[in-house]
Structure formats: structure tokens, C-alpha cells
Amino acid sequence: MMTGRRAGVLAVILLLALLAGCVAAPAEGEASPLAEASAEMPAPPYADTLFDDSLVHSIDIQVSQEAWDAFILTCSNKEYISVDLVIDGERFPNAAIRGKGNSSLQKARQTGKYSFKVEFDHFTDATFRGLDKLSLNNLVSDASCMRDYIVYRLMGEFGVPAPLCSYVFVTVNGADWGFYLAVEGIEDSFLERNFGSEHGALYKPDNLNNGGAGNMRGGGNRGDDVKLKYIDGDPASYPNIFGSAKTDITRKDQYRLIESLRKLGELEDIPAVVDIEEMLRYLTVHSFVSNGDSYTGSSVHNYYLYESEGRLSMLPWDYNEAFGDFGNGNMASAVNDPIDSPVTSGEMDERPMVAWMFSDPAYAAQYHATYLEFLDRFCRSGWITETLTETAALIDPYIQRDPRSFCAYDAFTAAAEQLVTFFELRAQSVLGQLSGSIPSTSEGQAADSAALIDASELGSSGGASGGFGGMMPRPSSGEASGVPADGGS
Fold first, then answer.
1. How far apart, in whole angstroms, are the C-alpha atoms of residue 201 and residue 215?
2. Would you state the pLDDT for residue 473?
3. 103: which residues sit within 8 A by CB, 6+ positions away?
4. 378 contacts 154 by C-beta, under 8 angstroms
5. Alpha carbons 308 and 87: distance in angstroms, whole number
6. CA–CA separation, 12 and 248 (whole Å)
7. Contact 116/100 with Cβ under 8 angstroms?
8. Strand partners, 81
């Protein structure tokens, strides 16, 4: 690993070069070292078929109308039913589908456009072209319909193991149902694609839906495990971690993870317990897009914890309320979110998987150098603007066709434009924070806000949320905008 002095010098050199305009943007399609390493592993068939994001795919759910109507009425129970799926014309019988989400389940009641989880191997041992799990996200609370998509793309392009995703238009027995984002499930197929057959252990710590064992509003240490804090040596003290294991784990696995949490909390031998390169890249993207509904926010969830041989890393999940739109936040205020105060609720020490990064100037310098790489590759190169513009054009007719859209069409077009503006203004702010012209901590910005980037053009909400006040009229099945009734696949 790079020494502290060399890391600090590298950060300064990169910063000066970037500010002087001397750092050339990477060539189009150029991958980071991490991305190149992962590319050596052959992609499974589903990666280049269902998750080809150059088109909008079609999924037809085939089941008796009576069974579907009953399923929709009880979707919040999250109980699986058996359906046949026709994906881009390829039939997959006896797949399992259920409702998914927390607040999104409540928000979808008015339209019935729930998010779904699909398990191809629930009733059988089969997979769909190697894929075992799939989420169909209903894009609620996101009028742009691109937040999850662009964040997963950024994470993956920047070398973070992230779920593959693509857009799909869902029909039920041939009748239009709605426009969705298909997201690769972070389970066995994902692990093998990213880490090989000899992968480590996977967890999804969450005190909101694991039996309430770690409710943060409770007393004592309840909720400390989802913060990845060391509590004691007893596995029973970590119900929200070990109760959410996505892989088979042993007692030895539990004690190994606990020991890693102890070292992490005490800042002991960080290179042995943190995948430093991967975490720096994850936290760079995560803080840039300002996601409060996450590990760094008040809910302390929406992340996966991956552990291999005692080393920990985090995997991204659920960014539909990113870009400052979680809770009472808004896109305009998020433009200047301080990159060196990424924990938005509570103290930094309460989030050990972030705190280590600021425990040593060498790590902080590496973080800033990683941020510079991110800005150069995705912002200065125009990659983000181009990707958002092309994606908006791709999905536009399908959003018009959606009979259960959560917002009016003009809200989509406004939100798509404002998302582009956010990235441009956010890049300006972060560059200023790295150069020192803008304070990079909450305390610094509170003391001196004069240099902050003016984001008033985004308005008070940034046009981001998908509300119910501007519901689109529901066209009859198969209508709308010149898009083929089969989803245009």
C-alpha cells in the first residue's frame, strides 16, 4: 500500500494538475484498474442480454387474472406467487414474484404499480441465463426515472462491484402494466460474477425490516450493529448483521467478522480489515450523489456488507432518493454537501466504515485523489451529461406509455434536465472543496458560506420527487406514443 507521505504528495500533484487543466480526461471507454481486473472474469449470459442497457426490454407476466388481482391486493405481505415470465420473447416458467420495498409499498397503493422481486430459483433450481434474483423497481419518488440507473452505472464504471441494471416495460397477460428499472439481485449470481465461485460472505444489515431487533430509537446498543460498530464478542449482539446473511455462514465466519469490526472501531490494522481501494471508490460516488437514505444517513440501511478473509467493503443499493431528496432535503442544498463530512446524521465516529478514512491524513489524501480521478473521468469528460441525455431520450416514449406513472410527463422532462444541472453544479462545488476555495466540512461551511456554489436555478425541490398530484391519465392497454405494445424489444 502507498505510504502516507507518497499518498499526500500524489494528491497535491493531481490537484494542481487538474486545476491547471493539465490532467487529460481518460479516453472514452477507458477503465479503472479495478474495472479492468473485474473484466477479466467472463460475463454470464444474462449480463449481455437482459442487462443490455442500450434498449428497453420487455417482460410479460403471465398468470390467471384472478390470481394477479389477488396478488396486487395483498402485495404488501411480500408473499411469492408462481408466474410465467416472457422476457424479450423468451419464456421462463414457474418464476416467483412478490412485492418489495418499505415506503415504496405504501406510495404505490394508489396505482398498484408496486416494486417486485423476482426469484427464478425459488420454486425450481433453474436460473434465467445464469441469473437467480431480479428486482423490478417502480421508480417512485424519482420523476427523472434515472437516479438508481446513473448511480449504479457510475459505481460499476468506477470499479465498485455494483448491480447491473436496464429498463424494462412490464405487461401482464399482454396488457400494459408499467415502466420499471430491472436490477440484478445482489445474491449468488452477483457474487459469482464479481468475486468468483470462492467468494466471501454477504450481509444486508437493516434495522428497519429484520424483525425490529435493532430499532435505533431503542436503548442500549440496539442499532449499533447496522452502524458496523463493535459491541462485544458475542454473535448474538449483532442480530441485524447475522440475521440478514445472504450467504451460508458458520460460527467461524461470525467471529471473524466481529474481530474485523473490533479492529475497525479501534483503527487497528486498517489495510487488513478494509478493502481500502474499493471503499474509497464507493464512498467517492456515494458522497458525490448525496444519498441520505443510506449508511451515512439517519436510517442506516440500504447497503450490503461484503467480507472476505476479514476484509470489509460495502456494495451500493437503492439510490432513488439520492441527490439530496431524502427526508426534508432538496437537490439545490445538496449541491454543496461537504465531502469531508459525509455522515449526515450523527457523529462520524458512529459510522466506523467512514471514520477510518479521516483517521489518517494518508487515507484522506487518497480519498481526495480518488475524487479528482472521478471528476476528471466522469464530469470533465462529459460522460455524465452524455449518458443522462441519451438515457432520457431512450426512455421518454415508454414513460409516456406508462399507465401507472407516478408523475406527469412534464415533471419527467424537467427532472431529467435538472439532474444534468445538478451534476454540473455539484462538480464545481467538489472541485472548489478539493482546492480549498470552498469549505469541505459541515463546520467550515457553517462558519463561511460565502464561497458556496449558487444552486438557486434548481429551485427548492429540484423537480426531483415523483408525486401523485400530477398523475398521468391512464391510456388503454397497448396505447401511447408510437411505442410497440410488446415493449419495443
1. 24
2. 39
3. none
4. yes
5. 34
6. 44
7. yes
8. 97
* pLDDT score for 4: 37
Residue 149: its pLDDT value, please?
Answer: 98
Residues 200-227: b if buried by 16+ CB within 10 A, e if exposed:
bbbbbbbbbebeebbebeeeeebbbbbb
User: What are the DSSP calls for 356-378, one per residue?
Assistant: GGGSSHHHHHHHHHHHHHHIIII
167 phi, psi to nearest 5 deg: -90, 145
Report the chain (489 residues): mean pLDDT per 10 consecutive residues. Answer: 38 44 42 50 93 98 98 94 98 97 76 95 96 96 96 98 98 98 98 97 82 39 87 97 97 98 98 98 97 92 97 96 84 96 94 98 98 98 98 98 95 96 98 98 96 89 44 38 39
Neighbours of 442 (CB within 10 A): 15
Single-letter amino acid code for the residue at 21: G
Please give the pLDDT value at position 222: 54
pLDDT (0 to 100) of residue 42: 84
Q: Return the number of other C-beta atoms located less than 10 Å from residue 161's C-beta.
A: 23
Task: Note the maximum CA span of the chain.
Answer: 68
Say if strands 133-137 and 115-119 run parallel, antiparallel, or are unpaired.
Answer: antiparallel
3-state class (DSSP) for residue 101: coil
- Among 458, 456, 370, which residue's Cα sits nearest to residue 420? 458
What's the CA gap between 143 and 417, in Å, rounded?
Answer: 11
Contacts of 301 (CB under 8 A, 6+ apart): 205, 206, 207, 208, 226, 293, 294, 295
- Report helix, strand or coil for 268: coil
The whole-angstrom separation of Cα 182 and Cα 85 is: 14
Rounded CA separation 109/408 (Å): 18
Dist CA 477 CA 176 (whole Å): 5
pLDDT at 12: 43
What are the beta bridge partners of residue 179?
169
Distance between CA 250 and CA 1 in Å, rounded? 31
Task: Answer whether 15's CB lies under 8 Å from 434's CB.
Answer: yes
